[in-house]
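Just wondering, does anyone understand these tokens?
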Amino acid sequence: MINLPTTLDGLYINGQWSAGREHLRVINPATEALLTTVNGGDEFAVEHAVTAAAAAFKDWSKTTGAERAAILRNIANGVRNGREHLMNLQSSNNGKPLFEAAIDVDDVIATFEYYAELAEGLDAQRDMNVPLPSDDFSARLRREPCGVVGLIVPWNFPMVTTAWKLAPALAAGCCVVLKPSEVTPLPELELAAIIAESGLPEGVFNLVCGTGLAVGAPLSADPRIAKISFTGSNAVGVQVMQRAAETVKGVSLELGGKSSLLVLEDADLELAVELACGGGFFNAGQMCSATSRVLVADELADEFLARLQQRAQAIRVADPFEADVEMGALVNQAQYQRVLGHIDRGLSAGARLVCGGNRPAHLPRGFFLQPTVFTEVPLDSALWCEEIFGPVLCVRSFSSEAEAIALANDSQFGLVASVVTRNAEAAERVANALQAGLVWLNAPQVIFPQTAWGGYKQSSIGRELGPWGLAAFQEIKHVIRAV
């Protein structure tokens, strides 16, 4: 557990900490106790932060990739040195078990280290000759930082989504104004403290805690912001895009998902059940990548459902700091009630509840919910079509590979998918047919900084991670000269 002051400064602007005028109550979702109050900002704090970033960009954009790489490695080392404290902050503020928080912190370290490597390679790529069909002209390509960028991140993976945006933005030479979620600001505040000791010049990185209305909206609309990168719900993503459109700035959006896990007729059932539980119940199902629609071949459906029910009911739901916990709490009261509402509407629509759907009897306080499994879910119900963001799986059988692919692709989203089969050819064939940005074959939801993150349809605009994440914060300039 952690001990915190009763109030925390929620603004880090131009290298200085200060208190904003908005008071954000930060709650422990496992106990419903007040952790602290963060004094966050408003449109005036955003104005101050963007001004500082714009001033710092003049010099920061001229630094070498090697200079930026050194600072990114300092940040990675700072996170590594503070690993245990950051894990505790994650679990206390978000409700996830400590072992999940450890995965998150390690991902942050890996992301900053990866973009340090890419930053070192930028110096050789800054001016590259471009072959032309004419000897009368020469051309060169320049990759330049796009400017001051606004980063708006969600509450389900504190620091992780920040690292996925912040590390490539800094590597590219951009200056940053970060808005963390007002629900889980504590890990980002600690990350900001680490960044403050990394050697980064004042004004390059700025943080403004606050609500979407008070901070996110003016940040998205500020004409000096060259690009907004947002991760969150589709509804808010639309609002961000509308605000950004007023000044025609660049936008990257990482939004929702309603992904499928396909269990083909020759699948290893034990593996399939474990992957279904991991895809549906990790982080209490609060993942845009949750494979909450489980499609199972007719031949395996009954046995799979029986095994899944047994495994789901055995999952240990408990306080995130208990040693044997497998699933923690949902992030807050609003999310808890939202998921319960989905469950109630699913029952009203005729879905059959296999297990779960209620608060665990041994946990009278906290936003805890049993792992929940439905079957016989109507294809037009919200339970099947909409992102729930909670520990709820819907299971449906299929009679052919073509039907499974059609069911999986019948969605407004296209973020990820998983396939379980012993047939390597079938695995590749199905993966190629699925409309998703990332497909796992017989694998848990492992993510590497080297591979892209993002999806088709309404799941994303743009990609994060890999070289694509770096390119998202670069402008392309060609210079053509007469010889």
Observations:
- The first helix runs from residue 43 to 60.
- DSSP finds 15 helices and 23 strands in the chain.
- The first strand starts at residue 7 and ends at 9.
